[in-house]
Amino acid sequence: KSVIMKPINIASIPADGIGPEVISVGIEVVQAVCARNSDIDLNFTHFDWGSDYYKRHGEMMPADGLDTLKTFDAIYFGAVGAPDVPDHVTLWGLRLPICQGFDQYANVRPTKIIAGIDSPLRNAGPGDLDWVIVRENSEGEYSGHGGRAHRGMPEEVGTEVAIFTRVGVTRIMRYAFRLAQTRPRKFLTVVTKSNAQRHGMVMWDEIAAEVATEFPDVAWDKMLVDAMTVRMTLQPDTLDTIVATNLHADILSDLAGALAGSIGIAPTANIDPEGRFPSMFEPIHGSAFDITGKGIANPVATFWTGVQMLDHLGLTNEASRLFTAIEQVCADGILTPDVGGTKTTRQVTDAVLDAIRQLN
Ligand code: ATP
Ligand code: MG
């Protein structure tokens, strides 16, 4: 009766610091939640790329690394960054080439207050903060355009040019409206700074209004980024789906992560919405060398990004079971020290595996 699904192949790149500690247990829980359905054939292939690889080979990944990854259905990524390798090497050597090479132009960051994890917001609990931030991930303020003239001289000038294209803004806006449409509230907030920045930001506002006509069932509003930080802090329940530029969403999602309780729980997905290339799923946090090897890294961000990955692969029942398991374990107070608990990575993982077995 059952139709065997074609194998799903996932590339895992744990990379640096706590990356391997959280990705290894992330794979355990993703596999466990798929175990009930024997039609699902999920395979992980490991790549030892990252800072140690760099120390041996002089590069963070092989020159044909993207060709190798291209054949996979998704990438499960840990973290990059090491104390003894320059930041520009770790950043530009692995993660960014994947994002850019695979045109993962939508960076998607769900944030939610989970029962059991305290928000620094007074009186805020589960239900008061449930957002998805969509970050434009391919252009804007981080386009690398600009330069410096008269370096070191009194008359020195530095420019940092943000590039916004009609194609780039339209596609991220469509993605955000479509995502808002799938959520119960069907509500999108478009963030810009179009009062002070009169070119690209005004274009964002115009394109938002154009794309909005394609989604008559989605309500939307506009916010200036400065006012947005206030609204996120004081009226979190008035927001749902949020779209912003590369820079603005970078800042807003750090704020969002802090308001939800910890950097150790925040997940992120780098999506190629057209499905031409594999998308990449990773915790927002970095390599955290201060806690590497201690066995206390919070695995929840990596589990949650596993939820995003399963969703993206069309395994929506598995995704929602995994999220439920995470919520149960947090609500039971089985937490790592960064969120006020006393448990280890292993103990939190075992609790999530137990919860999955109950749900399966
Ligand atoms: P990078 O340079 O790659 O950003 P980082 O060492 O600055 O990495 P971050 O991930 O940015 O580390 O996090 C800052 C601090 O937050 C870490 O030093 C660590 O103490 C804590 N932290 C981050 N992730 C986790 C986690 N998953 N579990 C527990 N604590 C974490
Ligand atoms: Mg950092």
TrEMBL record:
Cross-referenced Gene3D superfamilies: Isopropylmalate Dehydrogenase (3.40.718.10)
PANTHER family linked to this entry: D-MALATE DEHYDROGENASE [DECARBOXYLATING]
Protein family (similarity comment): Belongs to the isocitrate and isopropylmalate dehydrogenases family.
Stretches assigned to coiled coil: none
Organism superkingdom: Bacteria
Chain's role: Has multiple catalytic activities. Apart from catalyzing the oxidation of (+)-tartrate to oxaloglycolate, also converts meso-tartrate to D-glycerate and catalyzes the oxidative decarboxylation of D-malate to pyruvate.
One Pfam family it belongs to: Iso_dh
Organism annotation: Puniceispirillum marinum (strain IMCC1322)
Pathway annotation from the record: Carbohydrate acid metabolism; tartrate degradation; D-glycerate from L-tartrate: step 1/1; Carbohydrate acid metabolism; tartrate degradation; 2-hydroxy-3-oxosuccinate from L-tartrate: step 1/1; Carbohydrate acid metabolism; tartrate degradation; 2-hydroxy-3-oxosuccinate from meso-tartrate: step 1/1
EC number of the protein: 1.1.1.83, 1.1.1.93, 4.1.1.73
Protein name, entry field: D-malate dehydrogenase [decarboxylating]
Isopropylmalate dehydrogenase-like domain segment(s): 9-352
Entry keywords, A to Z: Lyase, Manganese, Metal-binding, NAD, Oxidoreductase
Record GO terms (molecular function): D-malate dehydrogenase (decarboxylating) (NAD+) activity; magnesium ion binding; NAD binding; tartrate decarboxylase activity; tartrate dehydrogenase activity
Catalytic reaction annotation: (2R,3R)-tartrate + H(+) = (R)-glycerate + CO2; (2R,3S)-tartrate + NAD(+) = 2-hydroxy-3-oxosuccinate + NADH + H(+); tartrate + NAD(+) = 2-hydroxy-3-oxosuccinate + NADH + H(+); (R)-malate + NAD(+) = pyruvate + CO2 + NADH
Cofactor annotation: K(+); Mg(2+); Mn(2+)
